[in-house]
Amino acid sequence: MARTRARFFALMTTCLVAAPAAAQAPTTAFDGTWLVIVSCSAASDGALGYTYRFPASISDGVLHGEHEAKGLPGWLTIDGTIKPNGSAILLAQGLTGRPSYSVDRVQSLTPYAYHVSAHFGPTQGTGTRIELRPCDLQFSKSS
């Protein structure tokens, strides 16, 4: 019995020594810094079209991008996980800017949210807004 315990502890010590001290964080082919361009056409109710350009980062397959500072008119954040095949459903949340650019002319700083169906390749991606007004998104990897 003592011999069995000794072998067990020797084996456990060998396994612990052989195991890596810390696992590296996973990375994906999409990780890096990206430029996001959101282009929204004029809406059917006459709301003016607009284009936003802002940086986003992808780390471990998770995208986060932000236009303007949180709490300001025109603030927008886009977040979501990109699958290994490049597909993603992203969540956009923001605050409206000037009423002339907003559907139904809602007042500035009105919260809104929508989803984006997107697909990423190694250096480029595209997306389409799913709800309310037509918007296209382009993603370009810069690093």
Summary, kept brief:
This protein has one helix spanning 2-18; strands at 32-40, 50-59, 62-67, 76-81, 87-95, 111-120, 124-129, 135-141.
Structure characterization notes:
This protein is mainly beta. The chain has one domain (32-141): Lipocalin. The protein contains one helix and eight strands; from the N terminus they run αββββββββ. The protein has one helix at 2-18, and strands at residues 32-40, 50-59, 62-67, 76-81, 87-95, 111-120, 124-129, 135-141. The protein has an eight-stranded antiparallel barrel. The radius of gyration is 23 Å and the shape is elongated. The chain starts with a helix and ends with a strand. The model is unreliable at 1-23 (pLDDT under 50).
Ordered list of secondary-structure elements with their pairings:
Blueprint: H1 2-18, E1 32-40, E2 50-59, E3 62-67, E4 76-81, E5 87-95, E6 111-120, E7 124-129, E8 135-141
Antiparallel strand pairs: 1-2, 1-8, 2-3, 3-4, 4-5, 5-6, 6-7, 7-8
First-last Cα distance = 59 Å
Give the amount of beta strand, in percent: 35-45%
Quaternary assembly: single chain
H/E series, N to C? HEEEEEEEE
Helix content: 10-25%
Please work out how many helical segments DSSP would assign: 1
Tell me the domain tally: 1
The whole-angstrom Rg is: 23 Å
The profile of the biggest β sheet is:
8 strands, antiparallel, barrel
